[in-house]
Amino acid sequence: MIILKSKREIEYIREAGRITANALQLMRKLAKPGITTGELDQRCEEYIRSCGAFPSCKGYYGYPATICASVNEEVVHGIPGRRKLKDGDIISIDLVVNKNGYHGDSTVTIPVGHVDSAALQLLKVTEECLYKGIEQAVAGNHLGDIGHAVQSYAESFGYGVVRDYVGHGIGMDMHEDPEVPNYGMADHGELLEPGLVLAIEPMINMGTEKVHQLKNGWTVVTRDGKPAAHFEHTVAVTENGPEILTLPE
Ligand code: MF3
Ligand code: CO
Fold this sequence. Notes:
This protein is α+β, with helices and mostly antiparallel strands. The chain has helices spanning 7-30, 37-50, 117-135, 143-155; strands at residues 54-55, 67-71, 74-76, 90-99, 102-111, 160-161, 167-169, 176-180, 197-200, 203-205, 211-213, 220-222, 228-230, 233-238, 241-244. Strand 4 (90-99) and strand 5 form a beta hairpin. The radius of gyration is 17 Å and the shape is globular. Bound molecules: 2-amino-4-trifluoromethylsulfanyl-butyric acid and cobalt (II) ion. Monomer.
């Protein structure tokens, strides 16, 4: 069931989203060679709680941390811990914040130190995929227009578009209907209406689109071990076009 949001609810989501975005800016500043993913997680949680907000993922189906920290070939749901970042790594930090009962969800992939040009291109194209998807989040369009825009751009670079994980509606629940695939056909799927709030989140692999989950029950990695990138914003469909709700102040 799709839950459309009122203007007031969209403002609540924007408030959560602002904290999400500010926290990700802090992560960008801290993600340097030598820091552990566990330290990033701790700093992130402290910041969020200092804003009177809560980490939505902590405890979600038993997830143990505030952020998902996915390094290199890890696609999503990497668990923070003792792993130290190294020069040349890329790290995807996915964060959902709950403020006043509403959630804001955003992800960035950050280059650590000096990263090779092939990985930098993957980051740039994945972020561009996100903005191509957001551009399609317009009333009167269909859900498939978002996925089609993301997929066609990513595949024009020979990249793999992850099929097994998708974006989602968001509001008082972190994951609401509809699913928002990063692939699809233009003019197909659910009609987009004002009040729809979506987490659009392309997960793009340098090589194969195929992924698998590690035995810890969370971490998803590429099957060929090549790097993956992930960018995400929470976006409202409004009468005046798409509005990104996960922007810093
Ligand atoms: N932002 C992630 C998503 O949209 C949420 C991960 S939280 C976790 O799937 F608890 F599931 F890890
Ligand atoms: Co999400």
